[in-house]
Amino acid sequence: MGVPIELFVPLWYRLDLKYAAFTWYHEAVVVVIGAVSNTLVFGFLYLLSYITKRSCRCFPKIFYRIVCWIGIFAVLDPYIVLFLDIVSQNWDRGDMFKFYNYLMASRDTDAKDSKLNGIYITILVHFILTVFTGAIFYRYMLFRFMDGRILDLYRRLAGSYKTFFMPQDNEISV
Hints:
Elements: E1 5-10, E2 15-19, H1 24-56, H2 61-87, H3 98-105, H4 111-144, H5 149-158
Helix pairs in contact: 1-2, 1-4, 2-4, 3-4
């Protein structure tokens, strides 16, 4: 984005990045890019499992589980980041506090309104990302995971008696 980076320290649980954000756009990109990247990786793996199953007629069970765990992580990523920001007390450069801190530093709005706006925008952005990623994860679990076994299980558990018609004589061959 053409923003000078002042500090770059990779830690085992987070990446400390200090930069000179010039506009609101820079802060928004930094906050959203992590969750969107996880969603894109999960979406790519979902698409890969679909294409592999369609072309080769098989997909290893272990990869279904790997994609499932990546999907769980992608859905829960904003909340994991919030937890790590709170535990490590990363109030200044934490992703969940960037909008709040940016609006508090700007001089064109009232301080009280800036606090609330930063909190509302953060909650709204991460709620939208969670719903979008959750919808993709829901479709994966229902239709792709283990060839749709969860959908089959639901149909068997919620089906009516007439849905599972079995003849009472020997009409079914071995």
